[in-house]
Write a structure and sequence with these properties.
- The complex is a heterodimer.
- Chain A is mainly alpha-helical.
- Chain A has three domains: 233 residues, Cytochrome c oxidase-like, subunit I domain (Cytochrome C Oxidase, Chain A), CATH 1.20.210.10; 240 residues, Cytochrome C Oxidase, Chain A (Up-down Bundle), CATH 1.20.210; 64 residues, no CATH class.
- In chain A, 64% of the residues lie in helices and 0% in strands.
- The relative contact order of chain A is 0.10.
- In chain B, a hairpin with a 2-residue loop joins strand 1 and strand 2.
- Chain B is elongated and about 95 Å long.
- Chain B has a five-stranded mixed β-sheet with strand order 3-2-1-5-8. In chain B, strands 4-10-9-6-7 form a five-stranded mixed β-sheet.
- Chain B is an alpha+beta fold.
- Classes of the chains: A mainly alpha, B alpha+beta.
- The interface between A and B is large, with 114 and 97 residues.
Chain lengths: 604, 266
C-alpha cells in the first residue's frame, strides 16, 4: 500500500507492456493477472461475471424455448446437445433451470455487485489507496475459479449438471437414484458453492475492515456515499449468513459421500434403490439454506440500491432525499432479513403457527423498502434531470423495484401464498427484483463508472438504444408472468399444457419467449458498445459527470495507489445545486465554502 | 433532436409502465386467463384477500409510477433554466411515509391470520378420509375401506384417480415415499408439500361436483411435469357406489392365497 507516484508515471507504467520489453513475465503476471490492485481485481470480476451473465442468459433462453414450445427441436443448441434428435429431454430441462439460477445468482449477481463494483469502488469512494488486505482480495477473485471450473465442468459429467433446483432440496439432491443430476453434477455443485462462499467471505472481511479503518481524513461514516453504506451492510450480512450455508453444504456433501443422514428420514426408498442412513429431516436443509439465502436476496439488491442512489442524485443535480432514513432503512432491511427466511417455507410442512410469525416479519420488511422508494422519488422531485443512459437505467431500477416490491406482498400474505406459491407469480416477483431491479442497477453502474474504469465514456446513443430495447423486452417477458401466476401456472414444469387448468397458456408463453429472445439479442448492442468504447470512446477526464464523490477526483483510470494527492473530505457526498456556490456541484474534497455552509444549515 | 422532446419521450416511456401494467391486469380476466374457478369453501377468503391486496398494491403502484412520470416530465433539465431545489429531506414526510405503510402492513398481517388458520391450523376432528402418498411420479391413494380405518387389510389402493364426496369435510393424510412433492389443487386453493418422514394433514370441502387437476408443485425429478392426478367430487351416494365398485375390483384381482391370509389376520 504505497502512495501512488504521479498519474503520468502510472499511465506510463500501464502502457509499458506494449511500448517496451522492460516488464518481465513475473511483473506482468503480478500487475495484470495475479494483481493485488483492487481496481484490476474489480475489473477481473466484472469481465468474468459478464461472461457468465451471457451463459446464464443463454440457459434462460433454452428454458424459455421449452416452456413456449415443449418438445420441439431446439435451434442451434439442439444440435450441440443432440438429445433425442434435437428435442430436449425433461431431465435436461430440469438441469437447465437449475443451472440458470445457479449461474445467475452465484456467478453473476453476487460477484458482480460485491466483487466487481465493491472492489472497484470502495477504496476510491472512501479515499483509500487500496483495500486493507490486498492479498486476501486477490484470493477472493482466484477462489472464484475453482467455482467456475466446478460449475462449468458439471455440465459434462455423467448425468449432467445439478438438476435439483438451485435450492437443492434433499432428498432429491442427496439421492443419486432420485435424479440423474444428483450424481457427480450435484457434488460439483456443492464444491462450487463452497468456493463461491470462500470468495465472498474473503471479500466481506476485507470490505468491512477497509470501510471502518481506511476512510480519508474527514470522511465520517455519515459522509459515506450510499454505495459504500450498501456495500458495508452487504458485507456484514455475508459474514453472518454465509457460515450457515457453508456448514449446510458440507452436511449435504457428507450425506452424499460419507453416508450420513442429516437430511434423509429413516427407510427412504427412492426409485427402488436401497435406503441409506436415516434419522434426518429434509426440512432441516430448507431452514439452513434459507437462513443464508434469504439474506442473500438482500446481498443481491442492496449494493444496486446504493449505486442507484448515487446515480440519481448526480443526474438530478440534487442532494439525496433523506440520507439518514436511507441508511437506516438499509440497516433495517439487513436486520429484518435474518428473521424472514421461513416465508420460503410456508407450504413446506413447517408448523403453520410458525408461518404466522414469519408472515408478520415479512410484511414488516416491506416497510424499509417502501421508505427507500419514497426517498428516491423525493430525490428526483425538484431536480434538474439529465437523461443519460446511466440515469435511465437508475430510473428503471426505481420504477421496476416498485413492481417487484409490491408483488412480494402477495406471497407474504400466507393465505394467498397457498395458491401462488411455486407458481409463475414468484418467478415474476424475483425477476422484477433481480433482473428488472439489480441488473438495471448494474447497467446504470457500468455506464456511470465506465469512464473511471477505462478512462473513456461509453457511447450515449447506443447506450439509450440498449436501454430502450432492454426495458421493453424485459417487461414483455416478466410482467406477463404475474398473470400466469394468477392462473396457478407452476414453475419448473417441462410441459404444463396437458393439464386442463393450464392448456390455454401456450400462446402467452410463446409471446414471453419471443420477448426473452429479443432481450438477449439486445445485449449484443451493449457488448459492442462496451468493447468499442473501451478503446475508441471519447476520453473522459477525471469527472465527466460533474459528480461529487471522491472517485471522481482521481485520474481516469486511476493508477496504482489511486489518488495523486491526499483527499481530505469536507462535506457529505450529495451537495448538488448548493445556493451561493459558483457551480452546481461541490465535491467532497472542495475547500470549505461559507455560502454553501450557510445554505446547508438552512436546508437541514 | 431537441433535448426537451427526448426528455418528454423518456417520461412517457415511464408512463407506459403503469398504463400497460394496469391494462394487462384488466385484459387478462376478460380473455379468461385468470384465477381458475374456485369450488372450495375456504377459497373465497383466499381470493378476496388476493383481490384486496391487488387493489391496495394497485393503488400504490399507479400512484408512485405516476409521480415518477410527473417528476420526469416536469423536472427535465431541458424544460427550463432553473436550479435544482436544494433540500436534504423532510422529517415530517419521513414520519408520514413510515407510519402509514407500517400501519397498513400491520393491518394486512393481522387481517389475514384467520384465513390462514382456517386452511392450515383448524384441523377438523375426524379420521382421515383418504391417504395420499406421493411418489416419483404418481399419487398413490389409500381409502380406509369398509372398516373406516386406515392401515387395515381392507384398505382400497388406487393411483391418481382421487374421488371424494361433495359438500363434506375431507381430511387428507399426506405422505411421500421418496422425495419432496407438493399436493396442489388449483381449483380448491390448496397446496401442501409432501415430505418423506412426515404425515401432514390437509383438509378442504368442495361445494360443487366436477373433476379437477391435481398438480405436483415441488420439483421432484425429471418426471415432475407429468405427475398429474385428477380429483373428482361426486354426491355421497354416487361416491359410496364408486367405492364399492373399486373395492370389488380390487378383491377380484387379489390372489387367492393373499385373501385367505387376510381372513387369518382378522
Amino acid at each position: 500500500m504505497s502512495i501512488a507516484p504521479s498519474p503520468l508515471a502510472t499511465e506510463h507504467a500501464s502502457k509499458a507492456p506494449q511500448e517496451s520489453h522492460g516488464l518481465t513475465l513475473s511483473q506482468f503476471l503480478s500487475t495484470y493477472v495475479f494483481s493485488k490492485d483492487h481496481k484490476v481485481i474489480g475489473i477481473q470480476f466484472l469481465f468474468s461475471t459478464l461472461v457468465w451473465f451471457l451463459v446464464g442468459g443463454l440457459l434462460a433462453l433454452a428454458v424459455r424455448w421449452q416452456v413456449a414450445w415443449p418438445w420441439s427441436d431446439v435451434p442451434v443448441l439442439g444440435k450441440l446437445f443432440a438429445q433425442e434428435g434435437g428435442q430436449m429431454s425433461p431431465e435436461f430441462y430440469t438441469m437447465l433451470f437449475t443451472m440458470h439460477a445457479t449461474v445467475m445468482i452465484f456467478l453473476v449477481i453476487i460477484p458482480i455487485l460485491a466483487g466487481a463494483f465493491g472492489n472497484f469502488l470502495i477504496p476510491l469512494m472512501i479515499g483509500a489507496d487500496d483495500m486493507a488486505f490486498p492479498t486476501l482480495n486477490m484470493l477472493s477473485y482466484w477462489f472464484m475459479w475453482p467455482a467456475f471450473i466446478a460449475f462449468g465442468a458439471s455440465f459434462f459429467v455423467e448425468g449432467g449438471a445439478a438438476s435439483g433446483g438451485w435450492t437443492s432440496y434433499p432428498p432429491l439432491s442427496t439421492n443419486v437414484a432420485a435424479s440423474p443430476g444428483s450424481g457427480w453434477g450435484q457434488t460439483l455443485w456443492l464444491v462450487g458453492l463452497t468456493f463461491v462462499g470462500v470468495s465472498s467471505m474473503l471479500g466481506s472481511v476485507n470490505y468491512m475492515t477497509t470501510i471502518i479503518l481506511m476512510r480519508a481524513p474527514g470522511m465520517t461514516m455519515f459522509r459515506l456515499p450510499m454505495t459504500i453504506w450498501a456495500m458495508f451492510i452487504t458485507a456484514v450480512l455475508q459474514a453472518f449468513a454465509l457460515p450457515v450455508l457453508t456448514a449446510a453444504g458440507f452436511m449435504q456433501l457428507a450425506d452424499r459421500t460419507l453416508g450420513t443422514g442429516f437430511f434423509s428420514p429413516e427407510g427412504l426408498i427412492v426409485n427402488n434403490a436401497t435406503p441409506g442412513a436415516g434419522g434426518g429431516q429434509p426440512l432441516l436443509w430448507q431452514h439452513l439454506f434459507w437462513f443464508y439465502s434469504h439474506p442473500a436476496v438482500y446481498i443481491m439488491i442492496l449494493p444496486a440500491m446504493g449505486m442507484v442512489s448515487d446515480i440519481l442524485t448526480c443526474f438530478a443535480r440534487k442532494p439525496l432525499f433523506g440520507y439518514r432514513p436511507m441508511v437506516y432503512s438499509i440497516a433495517g432491511i439487513a436486520g429484518l432479513g435474518f428473521i424472514v427466511w421461513g416465508h420460503h417455507m410456508f407450504m413446506s410442512g413447517m408448523n403453520p403457527a410458525l408461518g404466522i410469525t414469519f408472515m408478520v416479519s415479512t410484511m414488516m420488511i416491506a416497510l424499509p423498502s417502501a421508505v427507500k422508494t419514497f426517498n428516491w422519488l423525493g430525490t428526483v422531485w425538484g431536480g434538474r434531470i439529465h437523461f443519460t443512459t446511466a440515469m435511465l437505467f437508475a430510473l428503471a431500477f426505481v420504477s421496476m423495484f416498485i413492481i417487484g416490491g409490491l408483488s412480494g406482498i402477495f406471497m407474504a400474505a400466507t393465505p394467498v401464498d397457498i395458491f401462488i406459491h411455486d407458481t409463475y407469480f414468484i418467478v415474476a416477483h424475483f425477476h422484477y427484483v433481480l433482473f428488472a431491479g439489480t441488473a438495471m442497477g448494474v447497467w446504470a453502474g457500468i455506464y456511470y463508472w465506465f469512464p473511471k474504469m477505462f478512462g473513456r465514456t461509453m457511447n450515449e446513443f447506443w447506450g439509450k438504444v440498449h436501454f430502450f430495447l432492454t426495458f421493453i423486452f424485459m417487461n414483455g417477458t416478466f410482467f406477463t408472468m404475474h398473470i400466469l401466476g394468477a392462473v396457478g401456472f407452476p414453475r419448473r414444469l417441462a410441459d404444463a399444457y396437458h393439464y386442463e387448468t393450464f392448456h390455454h397458456l401456450q400462446p402467452m408463453n410463446a409471446f414471453m419467449t419471443w420477448c426473452a429472445i429479443g432481450m438477449v439479442a439486445t445485449q449484443a448492442i451493449f457488448a459492442a458498445n462496451f468493447f468499442w468504447s473501451m478503446f475508441r470512446g471519447p476520453i473522459a477526464g477525471r469527472n465527466p459527470w460533474n459528480a461529487n464523490t471522491l472517485e471522481w477526483t482521481a485520474p481516469s483510470p486511476p493508477g496504482h495507489g489511486n489518488f495523486d494527492f491526499q483527499p481530505v473530505v469536507h462535506r457529505g457526498p450529495y451537495e448538488y445545486s448548493v445556493p451561493g456556490a459558483d457551480k452546481d456541484h461541490l465535491m467532497q474534497t472542495d475547500p470549505p465554502n461559507a455560502a454553501a455552509a450557510a445554505a446547508a444549515l438552512v436546508a437541514h | 433532436m431537441n433535448r426537451r422532446i427526448w426528455g418528454m419521450a423518456w417520461a412517457i416511456l415511464f408512463l407506459a409502465v403503469p398504463v400497460l401494467g394496469v391494462a394487462t391486469f384488466a385484459v387478462a380476466p376478460a380473455i379468461n386467463v385468470w384465477l381458475p374457478k374456485d369450488v372450495s369453501i375456504h377459497g373465497r377468503d383466499i381470493d378476496s384477500l388476493f383481490y384486496f391486496i391487488l387493489a391496495l398494491t394497485g393503488v400504490v403502484f399507479i400512484a408512485t409510477e405516476m409521480v415518477l412520470f410527473w417528476f420526469l416530465w416536469k423536472y427535465d433539465a431541458a424544460a427550463g433554466e432553473r436550479r435544482a431545489t436544494y433540500i436534504h429531506g423532510s422529517h415530517t414526510l419521513e414520519v408520514v411515509w413510515t407510519i402509514i405503510p407500517a400501519a397498513t402492513l400491520l393491518f394486512l398481517a393481522i387481517y389475514q391470520m384467520n384465513a390462514w388458520a382456517d386452511v392450515k391450523m383448524r384441523r377438523p376432528d375426524m379420521p382421515p378420509t383418504v391417504e395420499v402418498v406421493a411418489r416419483q411420479f404418481e399419487w398413490r391413494l389409500r381409502y380406509p375401506g369398509r372398516d373406516g380405518v386406515l392401515g387395515t387389510q381392507d384398505d382400497l389402493h388406487l393411483v391418481n384417480d382421487l374421488q371424494l364426496p361433495v359438500d363434506e369435510d375431507i381430511l387428507v393424510q399426506l405422505k411421500s415415499m421418496d422425495v419432496l412433492h407438493s399436493f396442489f389443487l388449483p381449483n380448491l386453493r390448496i397446496k401442501q408439500d409432501a415430505v418423506p418422514g412426515m404425515r401432514i394433514p390437509v383438509w378442504f370441502k368442495s361445494t360443487e361436483t366436477g373433476s379437477y387437476d391435481i398438480v405436483c408443485a415441488e420439483l421432484c425429478g425429471w418426471g415432475h411435469y407429468k405427475m398429474k392426478g385428477r380429483i373428482t367430487f361426486v354426491p355421497r351416494s354416487e361416491f359410496d357406489r364408486w367405492l364399492e365398485r373399486k373395492y370389488a375390483e380390487q378383491e377380484a384381482t387379489r390372489p387367492a392365497g393373499d385373501a385367505s391370509g387376510n381372513l387369518a389376520a382378522r
